[in-house]
Specification:
- The structure is a single chain.
- By secondary structure, this protein is an alpha/beta fold.
- Helices cover 50% and strands 14% of the residues.
- The protein has a single domain, classed as TIM Barrel.
- β4 (165-169), α9 (181-189) and β5 form a beta-alpha-beta unit.
- α8 packs parallel to α9 (181-189).
- The longest helix is centred in the first third of the chain and has 18 residues, at 74-91.
- Bound molecules: hypoxanthine and zinc ion (ZN).
- Zinc ion binds at residues 17, 19, 169, 197, 220, 278.
- Zinc ion is lined by residues 17, 19, 169, 197, 220, 278.
């Protein structure tokens, strides 16, 4: 194993951009479909996995939402989350901040309670049995109207003690952050952390909107910031984190080659970037695999790798005490 490989494997890491529905492996899709008596348009997990070639974000999302249909009862959400947490243990991820998409479930008749109870029971077990800490972030689907986000916010009220933040995800183009100003203001008023996907496929102006209108604590993806020099300076100065997802960006054709990924350019310019897996079941790997892909294509120094890992701790929503422990 190379020095960098060892570093990646051994360093305790945090993950800040992970959609729990994006950890639904093809084998689990087929197993849950059988368990819940749901027919899928694929005969085998291999047949499903063969479809994981995406030309853009929307092609991925279409398949991702289709697969969530196999998640029905609380135990399904528990099993999904627990399987991801076991992968965290393998990759030495000690703290993870998990997104979930309630609307993709409640719109199918699965209750908010079912979703949140299944996920948080697994998070609680991981705290006790695996020593893995976590935060939970509820995302609004931006392709749905503001009224749906506001209704979801109301549904979440009895469960707010289990939810640490809100986010914004799904189809980015034509769905600017400005559409969700009011629901984000409500979340901030309740003291929740706020984040938003911006500048993945959408223009860098969406990053500005997320900062100025939604007042986010972090930007998810944000790689299209490279198109705006002044914004790069601002984000560096304000120490706003960008939760970068390298394998996601190549798999969704934001870059046609990992060698063109700007993560180290951004890092060397002083931006708080780090490595995350986004939807690992679909994009070819969990967090260590994302680091390995960067090493293979971009030949970073060990100092750069260490800085990425440190940035992830600094940008996390863990307590200052825990940050000091892991730094
Ligand atoms: N972008 C936007 N929405 C998403 C993603 C993503 O990468 N993954 C799951 N929902
Ligand atoms: Zn994402």
């Amino acid at each position: 194993m190379s020095v960098l490989e060892q570093l990646i494997t051994k360093l305790p890491k945090t993950e800040l951009h992970l959609h729990i529905e994006g950890t639904l492996e093809p084998e689990m899709v087929m197993a849950l479909a059988a368990r819940n008596g749901i027919s899928m348009p694929y005969a085998t997990s291999q047949e499903l996995a063969a479809k994981y070639e995406f030309g853009n974000l929307q092609e991925f999302l279409d398949l991702y939402y289709q697969a969530t249909a196999v998640l029905v009862v609380e135990q399904d959400f528990y099993d999904l989350t627990w399987a991801y947490l076991l992968r965290c243990q393998e990759d030495n991820v000690v703290h993870t901040e998990i997104f979930f998409d309630p609307q993709s479930h409640t719109d199918r008749g699965v209750s908010f309670e079912t979703v949140v109870k299944g996920i948080t029971r697994a998070l609680e077990d991981a705290r006790e049995k695996l020593n893995i800490e976590s935060k939970l972030i509820m995302c609004f689907l931006r392709h749905l109207p503001e009224s749906s986000a506001l209704a979801t916010w109301e549904e979440a009220q009895p469960w707010l003690s289990l939810i640490d933040g809100v986010g914004l995800d799904s189809s980015e183009r034509d769905f600017p952050p400005s559409l969700f100003e009011r629901v984000f203001a409500k979340a901030r008023e309740k003291g929740l952390k706020v984040v938003a996907h911006a500048g993945e496929e959408g223009p860098s102006d969406y990053i500005v909107q997320a900062l100025d209108l939604l007042q986010v604590d972090r930007i998810d993806h944000g790689v299209r910031i490279t198109e705006d020099d002044a914004l790069m300076d601002r984000v560096a100065q304000e120490k706003v984190a960008l939760t970068v997802c390298p394998l996601s960006n190549t798999k969704l054709c934001v870059y046609d080659d990992m060698a063109k990924h700007p993560i180290f350019t951004l890092l060397d310019r002083g931006l708080r970037v780090m490595v995350n897996s986004d939807d690992p079941a679909y994009f070819g790997g969990y967090v260590n695999e994302n680091y390995r892909a960067l090493v293979t294509s971009l030949n970073p120094s060990s100092e750069q790798i260490i800085q990425l890992v440190r940035n992830s701790i600094l940008a996390s929503f863990m307590s200052d005490e825990l940050k000091a422990h892991w730094l």
